[in-house]
Specification:
Length: 211
């Protein structure tokens, strides 16, 4: 299928249909219905991927891939579910896969939070090559642990620490209550501490509670 991403045809009756109606039409062979879904959510998907990857080229590439995968998987979409939430799930998984090929800038700060149970402090002003090398190793270990979290926890931890999104932004992107996002973040951090403590020799004495 060739997606008409970027096209801006004149508004027609099909543009006024709900997401569920468009999906049903697409499953009956009306590819123009999927073009409407692309136009409707292209910008949001790009924004999500850009904030995850901090790269316009990567975001553009994965926007295309997100909609191609969504089109090919439409029959697995539950008609009573939220289409944008399902779409963002595909996009965030692609973003996570792309990050596996490169070092995450957010993993080091996440390692600090996992270790001490608080938001990361400001970076030290003095640079030490030895400390930087050690920190890079920790970053790789943390990122590997993040990638093995259950999907619902992995998405929010990646969006919070790799995309630097606020709780409210994550809730908006994933169509979740802010309380659910906070709970998922809390549980993700607890799982990371449990997995990383024996590897990194963490000495964690506090117990963080969800906000």
């Amino acid at each position: 299928m060739e997606l008409s991403i970027g096209a801006r045809p004149s508004k027609t009756d099909v543009d006024t249909l709900t997401d569920a109606m468009l999906v049903r039409r697409c499953l009956r062979g009306d590819t123009s219905a999927f073009d409407v879904l692309v136009r409707r959510y292209q910008r949001q998907v790009y924004s999500l991927l850009y904030r995850m990857l901090n790269s316009a080229d990567d975001a553009d590439d994965l926007v295309q891939e997100t909609f191609i995968r969504a089109y090919n998987a439409l029959r697995s979409f539950r008609q009573d579910a939220s289409f944008p939430t399902w779409l963002y799930k595909i996009a965030s998984n692609l973003g996570i896969d792309r990050m596996r090929a490169r070092r995450s800038h957010g993993a080091a700060s996440l390692a600090e939070e996992v270790e001490v149970g608080r938001e990361p402090a400001a970076p030290d002003r003095e640079f030490s090559p030895e400390a930087a090398a050690m920190r890079g190793s920790v970053s790789e270990i943390v990122q590997h642990a993040v990638l093995h979290l259950p999907e619902r926890y992995r998405r929010v931890i990646v969006l919070r620490h790799m995309a630097d999104m606020t709780i409210e932004e994550i809730a908006s992107e994933l169509n979740l209550p802010t309380g659910t996002v906070k709970t998922h973040l809390f549980r993700a951090r607890e799982m990371l501490r449990d997995r990383l403590r024996p590897i990194l020799g963490m000495d964690y004495h506090g117990t963080e509670q969800p906000a």
